[in-house]
C-alpha cells in the first residue's frame, strides 16, 4: 500500500487529511513538526510527502530543502498561503506541486497519481544532447559523464522534452503531459525548468540545451 507522510501542525486538518487519504487507499501517517517529519522520512520512507509551510520550529521551506538533499520523494505543499512569492519559493526549495487549502481530496489524489512514475510509459531510449544524456529507461540523467541528481518531476519534464527534441512545447502542454493537469498554474513549469537549468547547463543564464522560445514555450535542442 502506498504510504503518504503528512506534515501538518493543525491537529484537525492533519486528522482530516489522514482519514481522507486512507479512504482513497493510501497508508497515511502524520506528524506535527518538520523535525518529526524529517526523522520519520529517514527511518520509514513514504512514497509521498505532504507538507504545510507554516510549522512550529523549522518552517516548511527549510524542511523541503533538507528532504531534497538526499531524497527525490514527490513533495506536495498544502498551504493556506496563496501568494505568488510563497508558491514560487516552495517550488524553488524543491516541492513538486502546490495545493491551496481547503483541499479537495479527489483533486489531491489525482495529483499524487500524476507524480507517481519516475519516467513515462513508452518513453524514448537514451538521447544525447552534446554533453547531456537523458536515459528514460535507466531513470538517469548525465552531464559531462556525471550522473545529475534530479527529482522525479524534473526527470519526467526532461524526458518529455527529450521525446520531442527540437520541438517547442508550450507551458500548457508540459503541464498536461508532466503533471497531468488540464488546467493549472503554469509557474510549476517555469520554476522546474529553472531548477533543471541549474543542473544541466554550463551557464544557466544562457542555456545551450533547454531553451525558451518567448511567448511559445520550451524545447530541448542538441
UniProtKB/TrEMBL annotation:
SMART domains, per database record: REC, Trans_reg_C
Sequence positions bearing 4-aspartylphosphate: 52
Residue range(s) of DNA binding per entry: 124-222
Keyword Phosphoprotein: yes
Sample GO molecular function, one term: phosphorelay response regulator activity
Pfam families xref list: Response_reg, Trans_reg_C
Residue ranges annotated for the OmpR/PhoB-type domain, each copy included: 124-222
One GO BP annotation of this record: regulation of DNA-templated transcription
Cellular component terms per the entry's GO annotation: cytosol; protein-DNA complex
Superkingdom of source: Bacteria
Keywords carried by this UniProt record: DNA-binding, Phosphoprotein, Transcription, Transcription regulation, Two-component regulatory system
Domain (Response regulatory) ranges: 3-116
InterPro entries: CheY-like_superfamily, OmpR/PhoB-type_DNA-bd, Sig_transdc_resp-reg_receiver, WalR-like, WH-like_DNA-bd_sf
Full protein name: DNA-binding response regulator
Record organism: Micromonospora globbae
Amino acid at each position: 500500500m502506498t504510504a503518504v507522510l503528512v506534515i501538518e501542525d493543525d491537529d484537525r486538518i492533519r486528522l482530516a487529511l489522514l482519514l481522507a487519504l486512507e479512504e482513497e487507499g493510501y497508508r497515511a501517517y502524520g506528524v506535527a513538526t518538520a523535525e518529526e517529519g524529517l526523522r520519520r522520512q529517514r527511518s520509514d520512507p513514504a512514497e509521498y510527502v505532504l507538507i504545510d509551510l507554516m510549522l512550529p520550529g523549522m518552517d516548511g521551506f527549510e524542511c523541503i530543502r533538507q528532504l531534497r538533499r538526499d531524497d527525490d520523494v514527490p513533495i506536495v505543499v498544502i498551504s493556506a498561503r496563496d501568494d505568488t512569492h510563497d508558491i514560487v519559493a516552495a517550488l524553488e526549495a524543491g516541492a513538486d506541486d502546490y495545493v491551496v487549502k481547503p483541499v479537495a481530496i479527489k483533486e489531491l489524489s489525482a495529483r499524487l497519481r500524476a507524480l507517481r512514475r519516475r519516467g513515462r510509459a513508452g518513453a524514448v531510449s537514451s538521447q544525447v544532447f552534446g554533453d547531456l544524456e537523458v536515459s528514460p529507461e535507466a531513470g538517469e540523467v548525465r552531464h559531462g559523464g556525471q550522473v545529475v541528481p534530479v527529482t522525479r518531476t524534473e526527470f519526467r519534464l526532461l524526458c518529455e522534452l527529450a521525446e520531442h527534441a527540437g520541438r517547442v512545447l508550450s507551458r500548457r502542454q508540459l503541464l498536461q503531459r508532466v503533471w497531468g493537469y488540464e488546467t493549472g498554474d503554469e509557474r510549476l513549469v517555469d520554476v522546474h525548468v529553472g531548477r533543471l537549468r541549474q543542473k544541466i547547463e554550463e551557464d544557466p543564464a544562457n542555456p545551450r540545451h533547454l531553451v525558451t522560445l518567448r511567448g511559445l514555450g520550451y524545447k530541448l535542442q542538441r
